[in-house]
Amino acid sequence: MFRRTFLQTLPAAAAAISTASAAEEVPVKLGFDTYSLRAFKFNGMQLLDFAGQQKLDTIQFSALGDYGGLDPANLQKVKDRAAQLNISIDSGMGCICETSKSFNKKGRPAREQILEGLRVAKAVGSKAMRCFMGSSDDRLGPLPIEACMETTIKLFRGVRSEAMDLGVKIALENHAGDMQARELRTVIEESGKDFVAACLDTGNPLWCVEDPFVTLEILAPYAVTTHVRDSIVFETPKGAAGQWVAMGDGILDLPRFVAEFRRRCPKSTMQLEIITGRPPRFMNYLEPDFWKAFPKMPAWEFARFVAWAKTGRPFLGAMVVEDVPGKRPEVMLEALKEQQRIDLVRSFEYCRKTLNVGVNWRA
């Protein structure tokens, strides 16, 4: 009796194991955000050829200028070349908030720009268009950050019908310290999550003293595209400091992150945005003035960041640092280009070999 009952349970148990294994191995498209190779000034076809050489599954064009021309003929060429390489495109553009310090006040109105971005995304076959609201400067500007959020919500609501007709989701990034995850979620929810989503960045939470796992937990339900990179965080006498590094060089628990990403974001692409060459950024949260930028941050979220910082240490590897005063010699510019390429390529290798991410490279 026991033997028969035990044997009868084997198929169900095997099916459960198979289902669990399948869930663990949800295919994750691996690609990169074109800002990772910013020093090369590649056009759309060159960027796609690079992606093809790396056997990637997807690419995010960080800015409209990266296509090498927005005329219909060129956009069709980009779309066709991506299809030939079996690469999906996530489109992108820059700042869309007119009250942000990052917005180009001499350019066209934000509505015109975002509509152009949506049309370009449609033309290249993209289902998502990444954009951003502003930067950390807006947190200490003449207007509170909520004013920029309200401007952005109003803009998004005003283009809802066009976005829905085109079938393109606006993917708002947590960008350069402009918003914490809770705030970005508010913009998505109040704009309309049927057409506004998230571009989830794992590096920018540093600027907001936010643990990237908090970012993931809050934004995962809305994420359609990403900027994934590793970081170093460590304590200092005034708080903490952080620096972006290549995948595997930092202290972000990437295996855990990818496991959570597979489970929480099965429809999102994983775009690496590798930004090395930057000096450490200091978050002096032991000084009272620091908190003028984050007066509403919950204590439990900050505690998560502090716990993360306690596990870190300064980066001791080799790195050419570009954000320094003065004019850089040509030889340094060439070194920076090579660093961008090497750090991006070895980040792909880390994702394949250690994280088991990507599809096309397996063929």
Would you summarize the structure shown here?
The chain is built from 11 helices and 11 strands. It is of the alpha/beta class. Helix 5 runs parallel beside helix 7 (181-191) and helix 7 (181-191) runs parallel beside helix 8.
Q: Describe it for me?
A:
Helix 5 runs parallel beside helix 7 (181-191). The chain is of the alpha/beta class. It is globular. The chain has one domain (27-362): Alpha-Beta Barrel (TIM Barrel), CATH 3.20.20.150. It is built from 11 helices and 11 strands. The chain has helices at 2-24, 44-53, 72-84, 110-123, 145-158, 160-166, 181-191, 212-219, 254-264, 299-309, 330-353, and strands at 30-33, 58-60, 88-95, 128-132, 169-173, 196-201, 223-227, 230-236, 239-245, 270-272, 281-283. It starts with a helix and ends in a 10-residue tail after the last helix. Helix content is 40%, strand content 15%. The model is unreliable at 1-23 (pLDDT under 50). Helix 4 (110-123) links the parallel strand 3 and strand 4 (128-132).
